[in-house]
């Protein structure tokens, strides 16, 4: 039986912005060949051509097909290892398909909890560099600066401290605030809303609603299902790299929680 899922019909009344067509992502992981020891002994085995590393394939995404339309906010749920983050990276163009493809109308932007900010630089400096990296002009960056600081809601004075002094929650809020400062064709958010208090989550939801109106589509991966239900108009449930269900948030999340107990 093929892993590929049925072709998805296009809604002629809506504008597609992301088309995922029979997507397969395969990781190739190299093991130690079964031997024990430290890095030095492993290197000696390689030099002596003993116990050559064994290659293992992990089929992380298996024949996923769907269409995202302009204005969609799509939640992606699934247990650990189901392929959620891999799917977002593939849509962002960071992982090459082993089979199938991803087609986007515009430039996807991936925002994750590990999004690169310079830990040795201050939050203020990271705002400037992050905005410039997203393509904003110096003038636009200056205009957005106060808005970003206010949205991130850091502790007093922390905007002038190095990022290395920030908690994980503070770093996540600042990353989201920077990314949300411009309009994105396709915005991919991986767990960034999982950290933060209710006040920040409400602001994040309002910002995503704003992005949906002004831009293309938003994809959100979060373990907090309440955030998914409140933010998204559609949910995709991934299970072992395949789409288990795709549809109305309440229906999909109920089926997911019934099946997993989460």
UniProtKB/TrEMBL annotation:
PROSITE patterns in the record: ABC_TRANSPORTER_2
GO cellular component, one term: membrane
Origin superkingdom: Bacteria
Residues covered by the ABC transporter domain: 41-259
InterPro entries named in the record: AAA+_ATPase, ABC_transporter-like_ATP-bd, ABC_transpr_TagH-like, Bact_Polysacc_Export_ATP-bd, P-loop_NTPase
Alphabetized GO MF terms: ABC-type transporter activity; ATP binding; ATP hydrolysis activity
Keywords for this protein: ATP-binding, Nucleotide-binding, Transport
KW ATP-binding (keyword) present: yes
Transport keyword on record: yes
Family: Belongs to the ABC transporter superfamily.
UniProt-recorded name of the protein: ABC transporter ATP-binding protein
Organism: Actinomadura rudentiformis
